[in-house]
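Quarterly update from the structural biology core.
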Amino acid sequence: MLEDPATAVSSPTPWPAVYPKGYAVVDVETTGLARDDRIISAAVYRLDARGEVEDHWYTLVNPERDPGPVWIHGLTSDVLEGAPLFTEVAEEFAARLDGRVLVAHNAVFDWQMIAREYARARREPPVRQRLCTIALSKELRLPLPNFKLESLAAHFGVVQQRAHHALDDARVLAEAFRPSLRAAAADGMRLPLLECRPLTEWSDTPLIGRQATGSYGGGRGPGWRPARKRPACPYPNPGRYEAGERLKQGMRVAFSGDTSTERDLLEDRATEAGLHVATSLSRLTSLLVTNDPDSGTSKTARARQFGTPVVDEAAFGQLLRDVEDAG
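Predicted structure, tokenized:
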């Protein structure tokens, strides 16, 4: 059952002074999940410091290509053809985000899609922190059967009317976030905030494959830099990382979960430092980097099984500053 707003406002619960002053609950629908997919609709619910709704905003976006899985989001080429381009809504979108913490369900996805659109537009989004409601639900130890938005909504008695419609998904999340935020405040809990860093990986390389032949005219145009095959690490694996010691060139490092720095850039830094970036975790892995060691992913489960050392992104960033040369 949701709290009555009037009762909630007069609640004597002390509010942590370090909590953000405002939030932007965001949902975006996209043409797909890849790095070069596009936003086709976006919604923002602006909330005050205690999670009360101030206003909301919604827009369609013409992705200038095929709309992707219409059977999921319901937005056809005909519907999107007359919609504004992202460059035409970028300023209004930015105004909705400005000075607020971006809140989303699986926030790394929404943030990266937004950051890429702003990179294409040669602009910088004004948001500096994000909060993932999946991470918050885990911190609160909510008794959910899974971490889908529908399960979070059901837990708080929020009725979902149009799943995979950006405006309704943002509304549902805003209503579920308010009691979650208040529960965190009542416990004096530290919010799982992560840094949002603008992307700088946009390059004017031609699109290939389906991106070059979409229903919006196709042709060749700007695109995300294609995935690069990383060179083999030239150094032998010196073994596992020991707490309090330095990383050493050749160590095998794996990553899991959401990171403040986009994963590719973080892996680039590790490679440049002489580390071996591993795509899976085995007994030979020297170190696992994750901001959520209790997430239950296959990598974190194997790390526990094998006794692999685990550090968070911030600690890993410090370790990268002083990597020992291979002996």
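The chain is about 30% helix and 15% strand.
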